[in-house]
Amino acid sequence: MIEGGCLCGSVRYEADAEPIVMRACWCRLCQYVAAGNATINIAFPTNAVAVTGQMTDYVSTADSGNKMHRRFCPSCGTHLFSEAEERPHLIIVRAGTLDDPNLVTPQRTIWASHAPAWAHIDPDIERFEGQPPPDI
Ligand SMILES: [Zn+2]
Ligand SMILES: [Zn+2]
Known about the structure:
Elements: E1 2-5, E2 12-15, E3 21-25, H1 28-33, E4 39-45, E5 49-52, E6 56-61, E7 67-72, E8 79-84, E9 90-94, E10 108-110, E11 126-127
Parallel strand pairs: 3-10, 10-11
Antiparallel strand pairs: 1-2, 2-5, 3-4, 4-9, 6-7, 7-8, 8-9
């Protein structure tokens, strides 16, 4: 069982499955969410993640063209999840919310072409300049 939650503890979740993929995303929107850096994201099967607590859902259209729901805690502002309407079988968990952030390691970088000039991008993992093909 992989567990996590927001900074203030109002939102908690449990994932009862292995992560499908873990990625660092440098799209422009993620730079807002991650306060300047890439977001670090873990994909799980949606039906394997149980969530308790209230969240605010911000809906926008991503650089990929997908209509995205980004959910965050209204008390502390921590971003926890994103989901694409086109891919409802996947839930993306923000790695900073894991109780143990060492559980997973990024396997690829996506939207590298949107990263600022100072960004450090791991040269040892797979790199995509934009949206990669779906993993599942
Ligand atoms: Zn919170
Ligand atoms: Zn992104």
